[in-house]
Design brief:
Number of domains: 1
CATH superfamily: MetI-like
Order of helices and strands: HHHHHHHHHHH
CATH architecture: Orthogonal Bundle
Number of strands: 0
CATH topology: MetI-like fold
Length: 265
């Protein structure tokens, strides 16, 4: 069977003008951005030397500092990420149910829940952490609440979409026999969204471990506070140790989440 012939056709005049306008606007945006950033050529030229000097100061890492200055902060980071993720489950699930019109047919509640999901996603975790530090004071409590508030939008949005895509057959059958609303959720919706739910929670837990590692830079507890202290005191060998620890934990978490997903899903 011969391959179908391809016909090449020139862009119309309007398309060519549109492509030219896009290229021109892109170039103008780059030029304006470069002027706004105000790059200092001397600093840019000296950057390789400064980077080499910094890496020289960071090597070798101060491995002896791990037991007394890093381990406890690392454990606190894992606690912040885990408790924040658990808190997200209790906050995001009701919000996702309210945002799903198939489950809650009142538009005003749908819009309110969607506003909560959008508001949670639109604010960065560090900004949430700054607000929580102002409310709860410095420490792990502020970091845990910040992780939970930031994760509501992520978990709730994906869970709401999973609920909206469920098969209506089992749900209509349960309603036809007079099943109460909790039974419809437990027997109709939950079996269909269970794989997506666990996948979303595990994925978000992995993300939260990474994000909680830097919350200490704004006083929200965890290994970030140890990193901030080392940076402020110019202990570069401790900085390299902390960065290596964060990298190792992120890699191990990725492997752990992969194994758990294979066992559960």
């Amino acid at each position: 069977m011969s391959a179908p012939t391809r016909t090449f056709q020139r862009f119309t005049r309007g398309r060519r003008l549109l492509r030219f306008a896009v290229y021109l606007l892109s170039l103008a945006a780059v030029v304006v951005s470069l002027r706004t950033v105000a790059i200092i050529p001397e600093f840019l030229a000296d950057a390789p030397h400064q980077m080499l000097d910094l890496l020289t100061r960071m090597w070798p890492p101060d491995a002896g500092h791990y037991a007394k200055g890093v381990h406890q902060a690392l454990i606190e980071t894992l606690h912040v990420a885990t408790l924040g993720t658990l808190g997200t489950v209790f906050l995001a699930v009701p919000t996702a149910l309210l945002a799903t019109r198939r489950i809650v047919p009142w538009r005003i509640l749908n819009r309110l829940a969607q506003l909560i999901l959008v508001s949670s996603r639109s604010v960065n975790t560090l900004v949430w952490a700054l607000l929580c530090v102002a409310v709860f004071g410095p420490g792990a409590v502020a970091g845990t609440v910040a992780i939970a508030l930031r994760s509501i939008g992520f978990v709730g949005k994906l869970l709401s979409e999973a609920l909206a895509e469920t098969d209506t057959g089992p749900i209509e059958a349960l309603r036809a026999i007079g099943a109460p609303w909790p039974s419809v959720l437990a027997k109709g919706y939950w079996p269909q969204v269970q794989p997506a739910f666990w996948g979303i929670i595990l994925f978000r837990w992995d993300i939260n471990v990474r994000e909680s590692a830097v919350l200490g830079l704004v006083g929200a507890g965890g290994i970030g506070m140890a990193l901030d202290t080392a940076l402020n005191l110019f202990y570069w060998d401790r900085v390299s140790l902390i960065l290596a620890t964060i990298f190792a934990v992120v890699v191990l978490m990725e492997l752990l989440v992969t194994v758990i997903r294979r066992r559960i899903l």
